[in-house]
Queue: 2 jobs
Job 1
Amino acid sequence: MSYTRSGVTVLGGALAALLLQPGGSAVAQETDASRLIRQLELREAPAPVRDRPGWAPPQRIVVRADEARVAWLQSAAPGVELIAAPSLASALASVAEADALIGFCTAELLAAGPRLRWIQLPSAGAEYCVRIPAVRERDILITNAQRIYGPEIAEHVMAMMLAFTRGLYRYYPQQLEGRWNRGAVPQEQLWELDGKTMLVVGLGGIGTQVAKRAHALGMRVTATRRSSRTGPEFVDYVGLADELNDLVGEADVVVNAAPLTAETTGMFDAAFFARMKPTAYFINVGRGRSVVTADLVAALESGRIAGAGLDVTDPEPLPPGHRLWSLPNVIITPHVAGGSDLRTERLWTVIRENLRRYVAGERMLSVVDVERGY
Ligand SMILES: NC(=O)c1ccc[n+]([C@@H]2O[C@H](COP(=O)([O-])OP(=O)(O)OC[C@H]3O[C@@H](n4cnc5c(N)ncnc54)[C@H](OP(=O)(O)O)[C@@H]3O)[C@@H](O)[C@H]2O)c1
């Protein structure tokens, strides 16, 4: 079964019929991929990769993984030499004859690998790869891990939001000092979320999972996207990117889940924070460079906004002594929102499915639009 959503074909359960090779374990593996594609609504390219200029059945692929993982991948790429390269140095040593690269994208590797036609990124962000001139010049196919990190990052956003709205960020430092102070957080700052408004900037894989959970908590959810106003029924209003300034004023919680592109670099600046409600919280799980850090610090110090939950910062890592570390109304996690007990297998299951598709010349999943940058 397949259906379309926002003009993009999303695969359903029929994938389960496409077996990697005869054998029970292959059936189970393929069913896993099919389930993930459906649950995460992974996007499939409109045309098979064999139609791309320069595609040929690959002979050699370098994979950022150990030998055990590569052995696990092999059933998806019969006859292809998969080379385990756990480090950048080992990848550089074996990329010269490689047709594709899984898990790395650096200018050095592209220069050392003149035959490369496909790169699978392990990340949802693609900004560090699409900015390498050789990607565009050589028309290299880039696929990424868009939507895969949605479930755990959405839970991370909920954790940060509830830590603010239930006052945990103030009670926890008290606990460390052994202090029982019931008045540490004024009652009016201990919010019930029912009826509050969340604005999700970037209603993609992560943004949609965030919106779903916020809606389940009774929140009204608004959102922005770049290319369409369509969205799921649990989002009250979906606007385009240029509607951000109109929507921000009614939000109690603003969540950034947009990719880093030329358009989103520095989009959260003093003018943006000035439009936020002074009682509202800002949560960033997208990229640090979408925020003008000095402007965020000023908004937090002056009480212009109530608080910020930051999994990503600019700079990263945030250096010791940076002002953000010492602000009482900030929660910082060191770019870890994408980690979870289930993440690794979910990521590799999708990567293996993309490997199978590339080798077979089929339609690829999660193709990055190099021009738009995500
Ligand atoms: N904190 C972490 O550890 C972590 C982990 C994974 C990812 N991330 C970040 O999260 C980003 C999103 O990941 P994802 O999996 O959700 O990717 P995705 O599924 O590709 O979603 C990106 C969404 O952003 C929207 N968008 C693009 N430009 C926009 C703009 N100017 N204004 C508003 N919306 C805009 C896109 O709109 P359309 O749908 O209309 O094109 C799309 O809905 C990644 O690019 C990465 O930077 C962070």
Job 2
Amino acid sequence: MKPLLVLTAFLALSALLIGPTSTFGQGLKPIQLVQPQTEGGRPLMQVLQARSSSRSFSTEELPSQVLSNLLWAAFGINRPASGKRTAPSARNRQEIDIYVATAGGLYLYDAKAHSLEAILAEDVRAATGRQSFVREAPVNLIYVADFSRMGAADDEKVLYSAAATGFISQNVYLYCASEGLTTVVRGSIDRPALAKAMNLRPEQRITLAQSVGYPKK
Ligand SMILES: Cc1cc2nc3c(=O)[nH]c(=O)nc-3n(C[C@H](O)[C@H](O)[C@H](O)COP(=O)(O)O)c2cc1C
């Protein structure tokens, strides 16, 4: 076969294998988050007093320090020697990944590097829920369980990953209450549509989403 023909065949095959994912990560840069501030915040009992859901968001972006603190509080590494996290997980499988949907694109939180991996150069916020405010909140977290990382039976995978999501979500609630941010955890999601938009693998299951931002004035 002529070299040009081989190249054309290779490109055609690549396009077939990769599929309609040309915008995946393309043009979107990863973000190295600033060091999280792991001291301070309001006293726990005051934070518990303030914890609540709210669905009215300003479009104001989260400052980079706030985004860093939020993700560390959610599911960051709090014991570097063991790599363990701010939320528990069954058998320490750490099966929940946090995707971060912003106006600029979709990212994946890498707790070890405390960075955001570039996933998709598209604003998928509107696809993260069935309620209209999701497109206004500057950050929508999408909790995705990776069943391939779990060593349990299938029904246990569902139970354990739902529980793990709850712990992470509550960390986010508490951080938001401490910082004067608005948040709501959400189950009302068109999961197949969102999974498609995010190009998830079949063993990746969307559990919940959570909108975060400043209250609308
Ligand atoms: C598993 C779960 C799913 C939820 N799904 C949604 C949702 O899709 N949309 C929404 O607006 N609120 C949702 N919520 C938030 C609840 O409506 C809220 O927690 C409840 O009304 C109590 O209010 P509070 O959080 O302020 O105490 C959900 C909460 C949980 C725990």
